[in-house]
Amino acid sequence: MSNSVSAKKKTNVKLIDIFSVLFAILVAADQYFKDLVVKQIKPVGTKVIIKDFFSLFYCENTGSAFSLFADKAWGIYFLIAVSTILGCGIFALMIVSSKNSMPLLSVAFCLLSSGAIGNLIDRARLKYVIDFLRFDFGSYTFPIFNFADICAVLGTFLLIYIIVFRSKEFEAFWNILFKKKETEDAE
User: Fold this and answer.
1) Does 149 participate in catalysis according to the annotation?
2) What is residue 183's predicted lDDT score, i.e. its pLDDT?
3) What gap in Å lies between CA 2 and CA 52, rounded to an integer?
4) pLDDT at position 61, please?
5) Is 184 within the bounds of a domain?
6) Residue 128: which domain range?
7) Domain tally for the chain?
8) Which residue among the candidates 30, 52, 71, 149 is catalytic per the annotation?
9) Domain annotation covers residue 110
10) Which among 23, 31, 33 has a CA at the least distance from the CA of 114?
11) pLDDT of residue 8
């Protein structure tokens, strides 16, 4: 094995390790923040941080984004299944992008998968997701969310950025996923 191939393999292993650890840290942070909210905020309901703008507000969300499926008895099981498939699938994409030295894509997939798994843990364990970040804009209250949601949204925006502004990198990743060789494109 040549030195450059060996060095690339070591770099790829390090990237996988780095992003796997980052994934674990983000999921652990999400669970830690939710545990703090249960202990500190749930007993009082809310803690105002910036009057009429930002507060910590204990909320049990039995649905998904914007409480979708919250009123359906089967909704939590559907969301557990979707979160499991997406979380694990996106984690696998993170591994593939890490193996192929694509750190920006790895970050996007790491954020997305940690957000999905963070909320999956709540759904499987509690049958609801703990939300706690509340922003008020006059009489409008933005939907209450949590740290896992922040990870998922940041990962989504980063992925959109890559697709739109770094399309060659995303296309290369797509080709790797579907084993499409550069030489096929030239034909």
Assistant:
1) yes
2) 45
3) 62
4) 87
5) no
6) 3-175
7) 1
8) 149
9) yes
10) 23
11) 55
Exactly one of 17, 30, 122, 131 is catalytic; name it: 131
Query: What local confidence, expressed as pLDDT, does residue 44 receive?
Result: 93
Q: 117-139: per-residue pLDDT in tens? A: 999 999 999 999 999 999 999 99
Q: With respect to residue 182, please indicate whether it lies within any of the assigned structural domains.
A: no
> Which stretches of 46-159 are assigned E, i.e. beta strand?
46-50, 54-61, 129-137, 140-141
Between vectors from CA 105 to CA 68 and to CA 64, what angle results, nearest 5°? 10
pLDDT tens digits for 101-111?
999 999 999 99
Report the candidate in 181, 157, 175, 29 with the shortest Cα–Cα distance to residue 104.
157
Whether 122 sits among the annotated catalytic residues: the reply is no
- How would residue 78 be classed by pLDDT, with cut points 50, 70 and 90? confident
Residue 183 forms part of a structural domain: no
- What SS3 class is residue 56? strand
Which amino acid appears at position 95 of this protein?
I
- Alpha-carbon gap, residue 122 to 66, rounded angstroms: 16
